[in-house]
Structure formats: C-alpha cells, structure tokens
Amino acid sequence: MFKLDNQPNHPTCNSGYFAIGTDVSEAGANRMFSMLLTLHTKKAEAYIGYDSKGDCANGYIRVHNIGETST
Predict the structure, then answer these.
(1) For residues 52 and 30, is the Cβ–Cβ distance under 8 A?
(2) Which residues contact 65 (CB under 8 A, 6 or more apart)?
(3) H/E element holding 37?
(4) Secondary-structure breakdown of the chain: helix, strand, coil percentages, each rounded to the nearest 5
(5) Helix or strand or coil: residue 17?
C-alpha cells in the first residue's frame, strides 16, 4: 500500500491508501512496485491508474497501473 500527497477521496473504498490487489499476478505487482520505487528515487511525478467508482483491493483504492507523468 502507498499514498500520495494529493490522495483522492473514494465513494466506497478506504481512501487512506492505494493498494495493489492480491489477485494481481506476481509479475504485474512487481512491475508496479518497481515503478513506484523508481519514481520515488527520481523524485518524479507519477500517474496512478485506479478505480474511482468501486472494486476495492483489500478495502483500499485499487491500483491498475503506475507510470511517470510526462512533463
């Protein structure tokens, strides 16, 4: 789980954190974790693809993808 400075509100999930679902393949979860660490290390802005309407991951906002924001 992780959170951002500008963490969004969510109508059904706990908005305190984003979560990568436990139903994501190990390879997929590792790619997302790797991207998070890379962006944090570079101090780069990230975009987080998440479900804004439902489909929580362990009660938190489900993450679908993570990438670097182009400037």
Answers:
(1) no
(2) 32, 48, 49
(3) helix 26-42
(4) 25, 30, 45
(5) strand
